[in-house]
Amino acid sequence: MEINEKKEQINEERRTVMKNNNPFLQHNIHWLSHSSINKWITDPAQFIAEKLFDCKDIGSASMHRGTATEFALNKKYEEGIFDINHAEQKFNELCNFNGIDFDNKKRQSESKTLKDYGNIVDKHFKYENLLACQEKIEVQFEDLPIPIIGYIDFIFDGVIVDLKTTARMPSKESESNKRQMAIYNLAYPSHQMELFYATPKQHIIFKPKNLIKYQKQIEKICFGMMKFLSISNDKEELASMFQPNFDSWLWSEGLKNQVKTKIQAWRDV
Q1: Which tens digit of pLDDT belongs to each residue from 149-196?
Q2: Are 260 and 266 in contact (CB under 8 A)?
Q3: CA geometry: angle at 48 spanning 42 and 50, to 5°?
Q4: Per-residue pLDDT for 147 more than 70?
């Protein structure tokens, strides 16, 4: 047998073993994302609630503001002008679909500032030669049995840009954002990675460095996650190993109520 054929046979046998001993699939997890990886780091209990028990958060008005701004910006590349109506329509559509009523104070507040975010993005987001928007990528670490999937905001000639709208301008990019861009860099290793942050009054562009460090970090995190999931096929047993921090802003009232209904281990929290 040729050496290459022997290597491929060994690799195929290893993939079969991985598939049959895959703690992710035992818990119905078929892929990971930068958000699920970051959630595992910041709040393992919420990761368990969402990934193992299918508890879903409807999303916040601020999250929909970001999506709506990005939608209008993409339309600008198609039509040549930034139309705030596109952002407003998308924002209202997302809020309505996710049950955020018009009289919700946060929705009203975000709606009022949507035009300000749009003005900043329209004036300062000056990248040229758009190649793709919201492109799906899939990366795979060796010996990790499931892929990491992501959606890149904007791909330009030689540059990948992720748009972040925020009420307060950060002094530097967050660790979670660096991990996100490190994943994109695995799919596009020759591209420059940039984070475009916009507030209602200003913008800043960060160019994260040393992404190989974060790629190694992500790989380590994923294998740690896999080791935890391999402890038991019983998701209730895994949930009982953590205590959810309901004081955290990350836990919406809707998500808390779902958790108390679906997860026996946390009924009395």
Answers
A1: 999 999 999 999 999 999 999 999 999 999 999 999 999 999 999 999
A2: yes
A3: 95
A4: yes
d(CA 163, CA 7) in angstroms, rounded, equals 42
Q: Give, in order, the Cα–Cα distances in Å from 187 to each of 31, 70, 96, 127, 137.
A: 16, 22, 35, 20, 7
Separation between Cα atoms, residue 250 and residue 244, nearest integer Å: 11
Spell out the residues 6+ positions from residue 19 whose beta carbon is closer than 8 angstroms to its own: 25, 145
Which amino acid is located at 202 in the chain?
Answer: Q
Angle at 120 between CA 116 and CA 123, to 5 degrees: 135
Q: Give the separation between CA 121 and CA 114, rounded to whole angstroms.
A: 11
Structure tokens at 8: 């491929």
What is the rounded distance in angstroms from the CA atom of residue 97 to the CA atom of residue 16? 41
